Amino acid sequence: MQTCRGCSLNRLPEVKRFVMDDAPHFERLEVKFITGAPPELILLGNGDKELERIPLSNLSRQECNDLVKSKGFIRRNDKEEF
């Protein structure tokens, strides 16, 4: 996924909480901070070919979590890491 770290993300508190607090806990989900980029989930296939780009701006934190789970991303159990 990609997003701007500040400007647009600060206007989207639900999406910001997902990006900063939830996204790091999903396996194979990488967050890239790109200045001026709107928050989007970008699905890549073989050879990093872009398959789908889904805007997150209109979603709640829960909807963002549900979306990444529906796309096959698995949330790591933090307790298992210790």
UniProtKB/TrEMBL annotation:
Keyword RNA-binding among record annotations: no
GO MF annotation terms: oxidoreductase activity
Keyword Signal in annotation: yes
Keyword set, alphabetical order: Selenocysteine, Signal
Selenoprotein F/M domain location: 3-73
One GO CC term, this protein: endoplasmic reticulum lumen
Family listed: Belongs to the selenoprotein M/F family.
Name the UniProt record assigns to this protein: Selenoprotein M
Provenance organism: Danaus chrysippus
